[in-house]
Amino acid sequence: MSIKKIVLKVTINCQKCKTEVLKAVSKLTGVDEVTVDGEKGILTVVGSVDPVCIATQLKKAKIYAEITSVGPPKKPDDPKPKPTESDKPKPCQPLPPCCNRCELVAVSYVTYDDGKCSIL
């Protein structure tokens, strides 16, 4: 199988979601490189792995994924000159540590036992 660059759109809301995505994909055999862009929600995988296997693995981890593109990886370009301070990208906002989807919710119940049983 040849080496491919696979781009998937995933839902990443927090740092924990990002870690779960990386853990799920890095377990697959044939993966050479994995990158995640949390702001855009894009997962890029380079390697000789089937795109459907990646989507299936993410589905098992309860993460929705949509395959955007599959193709050959880009060849390395010539080294670029170092950027000046005015050309540097602005720092991005870090992801929150946890989101509503990741948080555990405590559920409790109260039993009313007054000794009587009634069926209405």
From TrEMBL:
Its main location: membrane. GO terms for molecular function: metal ion binding. Residues 69-95 are annotated as: Disordered. GO terms for cellular component: membrane. GO terms for biological process: plant-type hypersensitive response. Residues 74-90 have a biased composition (Basic and acidic residues). Transmembrane segments: none annotated. Residues 3-70 form the HMA domain. InterPro entries: HIPP, HMA_dom, HMA_dom_sf. It is a peripheral membrane protein. Pfam families: HMA. It is found in: Membrane. PROSITE patterns: HMA_2. Keywords: Lipoprotein, Metal-binding, Methylation, Prenylation. PANTHER family: COPPER TRANSPORT PROTEIN FAMILY-RELATED, HEAVY METAL-ASSOCIATED ISOPRENYLATED PLANT PROTEIN 2-RELATED. Belongs to the HIPP family. This is HMA domain-containing protein. It comes from Buddleja alternifolia. The lineage of its organism: Eukaryota, Viridiplantae, Streptophyta, Embryophyta, Tracheophyta.
